Amino acid sequence: MSTSEVTRPSGFLGNLNSRNHHRALTVFMIIVVAHWTEHIVQAVQIYGLGWPTSRARGVLGLPFPWLISQEWLHYGYALVMLVFLWVLRHGFAGRSRQWWNLALALQFWHHIEHLLLFVQAQSGWRLAGAKVPTSIVQLLIPRVELHLFYNTIVTIPMIVAVVLHRRASAAERELTQCLCGQPKQPALAS
Fold first, then answer.
1. Which of 54, 81, 95, 143 has the greatest number of C-beta atoms within 10 Å?
2. Do the domain assignments include residue 48?
3. Which class for 166: exposed (0-12), middle (13-18), buried (19 or more C-beta within 10 A)?
4. Are the C-beta atoms of residues 65 and 87 closer than 8 Å to each other?
5. Cα(137)–Cα(53) distance, rounded to whole angstroms?
6. Which residues cross the membrane (predicted)?
């Protein structure tokens, strides 16, 4: 991979993808994994504890049930995630960038599905005459299982990308100017 294949942004984005990439990536991944965990907990509540779907709201949805029913919140999260996947990709090179790009492509589709749900919630129109807002794939797979699936197939490539990124070669670090995974310099002996 030559230097011409990786465009390094300047200014704020340049700093975010070089010296601040580790911090930004860590915060973003904590949020993504916490969101994924909410979907896993919801599935455990339904299939492990036998709760009806209407009561299975994850961890945050129990004290704040409105979190589950607000399509604008779900769409907003999908959009923010898509933006950060795009913005933080400049800090990746080589195989880690390929995995990050896979997560970006999958999240793009997930975002389209949430956009469709959001439009239905705002307009009153329903896909295929459904009683509630329904996404395209949701016509085949129930919503709880579908969104657990979507979040899983987006999060796993992100985790693979981060692991590969933190183990980046010197050449890959040179391309991105990212300091993630760079060996720490030993303190000078006095």
1. 81
2. yes
3. middle
4. no
5. 19
6. 72-88
